[in-house]
Amino acid sequence: MVAGAVASPALDTRAELEPRTFGATLGCGALNLVHPSKTFYPGDSTYEYENAQFWSNTQILSPQCIFRPTSATEVAAAILTSRLTQAKFAVRGGAHMAIPGANSIDDGILLVSSNLTTLQISDDRKSVVVGPGHNWGQVYKYLEQYNVAVAGGRLAPVGVPGLLLGGGVSFYGNQAGWSADNVLEYEVVLASGQIVTASATSNTDLFWALKGGSSNFGIVTSFKLRTFPSKKVFAGAYTVAGEYVEDFLAAVANFSAFNTDPKSHIVPMVVPSDATNSVGSAVLFYDSETDSNPECFAPFFAIPSIASTMGFKTVSDFAIEVGGLVVEDINDMFFTGSAVGKDYDTLYQGVKISHDVFIAALPELFAAVPVEDFVLLSVNWQPIGKLWSDGSKAMNPTGNALGIDVASKGTYLAWAGAVEWKSSKYDAAVNAWVQKTTAAINAAAKVAGIYEAFNYMGDASGFQKIYEGYGATNQKKLLDISRKYDPLRALQRLLPGGYKIGI
């Protein structure tokens, strides 16, 4: 890991505060002058390739140029160039966030991490340094030869940086808490161009802020992650017919309320095919290479299945399997919310409200968009309870920015909706429906007295608020840290995408 500084020219404060005309043209020209083999313009095959590497068509914009650095030093050069020319820019990791402008930009500089591909396990195999150019499938495949895994993304195509900077949900949540709690060290390029290390002993406030604070503090160019022994796990998808969906929802609530097994993880979802027909499907994960009938999954296994892929497999193979949900060349929109509860009845109510309101809203969606245009519709749930909270504290005693308070509020039931469709002409209609449905679910949860303001960044839409859900104390702390490491607010003004703090 590099911990040092990049020499930078003195910056004129007035020039920084007064955007210049043709900033992107100047910025792209400066990068092309110094790094001609790493700067690409429209019409270049590399530009066209990189500008198509997005999870959703809703993300594709038209940057004036694309810059593909190979080191933290070159990332620093790009940031300084942006500041000097006042060129706005975007940063793309795995491009999983399907929000327009979150990881691309019109008429600015797109910095892509494709060639920031460090991947190096430690001699004792207890940690691995990962560059932001990787997806989780690549990381798991590399680690498989060493019989270890990390608390990373559950779908192979998901990128490394966005998940880790937004908190991160992994298969190991009930053992190790949030993925971010398992980052031991960050290499970060600050707005000043300085390259620093953030860890439990160095720049500790920055270390805390990066665990849920996204790109408000700098550009992370490598992550040092804790590894876990892992040869094979018992995992798969367990799917039940529509006639058993109510039993399936009860099983979700049962697991949320009563599970005490830290080796377990679930991603239960209901997938409607139209306004009246659905199936229930649970992604089930158990960290054991011998136990094929864990008691914690009994409520699901008690329901007859119409399909099951349960079996022993590596984490790498399972992430590829789950990653099969990803369909290329379509439009995606995700939205999220949370309910809280301390007992089965309350958590069941939370599951039912989010499910029932989602399903009841579908006729309005199908009136605006033909049902055959949809690739996937789903609503899923992620229980975050005492096991998760204890895992976070054990892995990361310094804490994170997310503000989860299981001790006083009970188990968080984070729900997420997903809409995937083919034709971009329906973007506005889907967006309007998502906003209306999100408001309706939250309103019903408030009436029931179980609403919680926490929105998990990795599943949120662009209209949703993130940092307010972390609590006022953490929100202020994040803002103060942002101002400390970026006093001129360059990353707020020139890096407009994603969830910004203090704007």
Describe the protein.
This is FAD binding domain-containing protein. It holds the Pfam family FAD_binding_4. It comes from Plectosphaerella plurivora. One of its GO terms (molecular function) is FAD binding. Residues 59-230 form the FAD-binding PCMH-type domain. The chain has 503 residues and is an alpha+beta fold. It has three domains: 13-115, Uridine Diphospho-n-acetylenolpyruvylglucosamine Reductase, domain 2 (2-Layer Sandwich); 119-230, Uridine Diphospho-n-acetylenolpyruvylglucosamine Reductase, domain 3 (2-Layer Sandwich), CATH 3.30.465; 233-472, Vanillyl-alcohol Oxidase, Chain A, domain 3. It has helices spanning 13-17, 23-34, 45-50, 72-85, 136-144, 160-165, 173-176, 204-209, 245-258, 298-301, 315-323, 344-360, 362-368, 386-395, 406-409, 427-448, 472-485, 490-493, and strands spanning 39-40, 65-67, 89-92, 109-112, 119-121, 127-130, 148-150, 183-189, 195-199, 219-229, 233-240, 264-272, 278-286, 307-308, 311-313, 331-341, 374-384, 411-421, 451-452. Strands 11, 12, 13, 14, 15, 16, 17, 18 and 19 form a nine-stranded antiparallel β-sheet that branches. Strands 5, 6, 7, 8, 9 and 10 form a six-stranded antiparallel β-sheet that branches. Helix 2 runs antiparallel to helix 4 (72-85) and helix 5 runs antiparallel to helix 11. The protein is globular and about 65 Å long.
* Structure summary, number of beta strands: 19
Taking pLDDT < 50 over at least 5 consecutive residues as the criterion, the unreliable ranges are: 1-21
| Overall geometry | globular
State which percent range the strand residues make up: 15-25%
Query: What is the helical fraction, as a range of percent?
Result: 25-40%
Structural class: alpha+beta
CATH architecture of the largest domain: 3-Layer(aba) Sandwich
Mean pLDDT: 93
Cα separation of the termini: 32 Å
Using the CA coordinates, give the radius of gyration. 22 Å
Largest beta-sheet characterization: 9 strands, antiparallel
Quaternary form: single chain
- Give the C-level CATH assignment of the largest domain: Alpha Beta
What's the CATH topology name of the largest domain? Vanillyl-alcohol Oxidase, Chain A, domain 3
Total DSSP helices: 18
Number of domains: 3
